[in-house]
């Protein structure tokens, strides 16, 4: 069995109108090479699901990839609000389903376990409960006469995840931050993994404690070095905050400046993107930062 | 007494909430420098064994605040690793959570926080980021601290436009009766004062005013009614040791200022900080590059 394919093929593996869960969280390990490929393919039909989205979601919104977004948060953190996300929702151009993060995680777990719903110690007191009757409900069991809060199972059509390494059978290893990626893989019908490197199964076996998603859950494997850039993929490379700042400047300017940012991505292959953004010392600097990691205890 | 800035008063007050007792755990959310600085300060001073979880690194050590170095340091120094979902189960839903720091666009006298939308939810004037796990966490952690970079009636308002989350009920006896996590009240820390609400039936009370701030100033700047005790103490000033740790070890790049800047000003400051991070990173490459 060989699940290996190429990044250029990824858009055709994602069906029209699919609900697609994107891995990663905050500025860590988002599947950015895959996101860029969907932008290059000029997709406009995807219902994205992002637990803790940042530049991944904002780029897809800005490039018109998403027709709907399910999320708990989209932010560029200390760099400011996610501008395209903010503008699109304010203009009524992006329908949203906002679900608090813990409840969204439990809904995905229910999906992964093929149960219709799960109880959750949920967000009592939040207006988001009444806002989302298709997500939050109550259930009464034979164990007692109290209603308990439940969330309905979510089963995305596709999960797209970026990992450290993977073999041809789809065994996925992480060594640093891996967000909620194993749970996304368990919940989704089709699982696409991009990774820093494809390795032989013997290398996976040599460090099997790093395998967080077993191959039987995975459908497609794609090699994409620096595939999380400009997000981090510890321990390979740190967040490229300098590139994210360039992104945020373009997003804040909007209009032609932002269109130029998107056009540049559309006008180059992923290999050309890597050559451009990692020019000079950038790639070595990001790798050295991820390697160094001095703490204040050692200082 | 060392000279200090008001954000340092805030950091030290928030840090005092973080303790080692009971092995309760604090999970770091998005990079909100002021809260991060408070956690690191507690770890380096009165609570070295307090549990911190950053990214998926459980038991992360104190790290210097930066855009490009903090994650790798947390990861290298951590004692265990998990993905978000088991961490959420263990800590948030497993009720092992200690201290939740939130910084919302609005908060009202009932303790509701708005991280969703200014204006009408369906047609917002400003769409905000969303609350991530805050709506569940404010219910399930022992302590909630809301901090704000400004203290005015737009931020601390009569009624939030949208309640993304709310700790309810707040009174300890009511929480215990409902089988909810007991523990601390909702505390607000601003550049002017510290407010606290322990009882659903009573408004927030002024716990302390910062040095040089009057009680009248605080009451006038707050958009909801506050209880004013007969005796309002002054918030503790940072010690020379705390100032030294914050400025020279925890946050030498000055990331804490981001919480107080917006728009163009924030971007300009960001360029400054990232230029410093680049210079340091290049030094790292030179040092670690193979010779010849």
TrEMBL record, chain B:
Coiled coil: none annotated. The keyword Transferase applies. Its EC number is 2.8.3.6. It comes from the Bacteria. SMART domains: CoA_trans (SM00882). Keywords: Transferase. GO terms for molecular function: 3-oxoadipate CoA-transferase activity. SUPFAM superfamilies: NagB/RpiA/CoA transferase-like. The keyword Transferase applies. Belongs to the 3-oxoacid CoA-transferase subunit B family. This is 3-oxoadipate CoA-transferase subunit B. It comes from Capillimicrobium parvum. The gene is catJ_2.
């Amino acid at each position: 069995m060989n699940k290996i394919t190429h990044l250029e093929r990824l858009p055709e593996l994602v069906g029209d109108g699919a609900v697609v869960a994107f891995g990663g969280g905050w500025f860590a390990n988002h599947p950015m090479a895959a996101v860029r490929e969907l932008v290059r393919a000029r997709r406009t039909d995807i219902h994205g699901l992002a637990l803790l989205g940042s530049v991944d979601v904002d780029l897809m919104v800005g490039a018109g990839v998403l027709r709907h977004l399910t999320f708990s948060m989209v932010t560029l953190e200390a760099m400011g609000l996610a501008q395209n996300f903010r503008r699109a929702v304010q203009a009524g151009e992006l329908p949203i389903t906002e679900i608090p993060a813990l409840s969204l995680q439990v809904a995905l777990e229910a999906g992964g376990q093929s149960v219709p719903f799960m109880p959750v110690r949920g967000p009592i007191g939040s207006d988001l409960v009444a806002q989302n009757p298709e997500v939050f409900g109550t259930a009464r069991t034979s164990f007692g006469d109290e209603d308990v809060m439940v969330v309905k199972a979510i089963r995305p059509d596709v999960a797209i995840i970026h990992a450290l390494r993977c073999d041809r059978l789809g065994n996925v290893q992480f060594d640093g931050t891996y967000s909620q990626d194993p749970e996304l893989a368990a919940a989704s019908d089709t699982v696409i993994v991009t990774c820093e490197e494809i390795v032989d199964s013997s290398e996976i076996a040599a460090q099997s404690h790093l395998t967080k998603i077993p191959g039987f859950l995975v459908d497609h494997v794609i090699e994409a070095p620096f595939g999380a850039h400009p997000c981090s993929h510890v321990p390979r490379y740190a967040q490229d905050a300098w590139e994210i700042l360039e992104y945020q400047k373009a997003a804040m300017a909007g209009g032609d400046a932002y269109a130029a940012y998107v056009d540049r991505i559309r006008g180059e292959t992923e290999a050309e993107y890597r050559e451009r953004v990692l020019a000079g010392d950038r790639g070595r600097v990001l790798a050295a930062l991820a390697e160094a990691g001095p703490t204040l205890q050692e200082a | 007494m060392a000279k200090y800035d008001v954000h340092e008063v805030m950091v030290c007050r928030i840090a005092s909430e973080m303790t080692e007792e009971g092995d309760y755990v604090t999970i770091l959310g998005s990079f909100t420098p002021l809260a991060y600085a408070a956690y690191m300060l507690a770890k380096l001073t009165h609570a070295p064994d307090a549990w911190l979880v950053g990214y998926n690194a459980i038991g992360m050590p104190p790290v210097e605040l930066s855009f490009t170095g903090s994650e790798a340091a947390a990861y290298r120094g951590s004692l265990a690793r998990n993905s978000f979902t088991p961490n959420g189960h263990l800590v948030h839903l497993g009720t092992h959570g200690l201290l939740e720091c939130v910084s919302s666009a609005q908060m009202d006298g009932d303790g509701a926080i708005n991280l969703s939308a200014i204006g009408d939810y369906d047609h917002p004037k400003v769409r905000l980021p969303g609350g991530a796990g805050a709506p569940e966490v404010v219910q399930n952690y022992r302590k909630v601290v809301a901090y704000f970079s400004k203290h005015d009636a737009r931020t601390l308002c009569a009624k939030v436009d949208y309640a993304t989350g709310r700790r309810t009920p707040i009174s300890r006896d009511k929480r215990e009766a409902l089988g909810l996590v007991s523990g601390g009240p909702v505390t607000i820390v601003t550049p002017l004062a510290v407010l606290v609400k322990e009882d659903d039936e009573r408004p927030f009370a002024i716990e302390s005013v910062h040095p040089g701030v009057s009680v009248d100033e605080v009451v006038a700047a707050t958009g909801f009614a506050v209880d004013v005790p007969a005796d309002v103490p002054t918030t503790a000033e940072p010690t020379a040791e705390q100032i030294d740790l914050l400025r020279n070890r925890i946050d030498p790049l000055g990331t804490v200022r981001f919480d107080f800047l917006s728009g163009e000003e924030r971007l300009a400051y960001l360029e400054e900080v990232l230029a410093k991070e680049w210079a340091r990173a290049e030094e790292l490459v030179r040092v670690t590059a193979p010779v010849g």
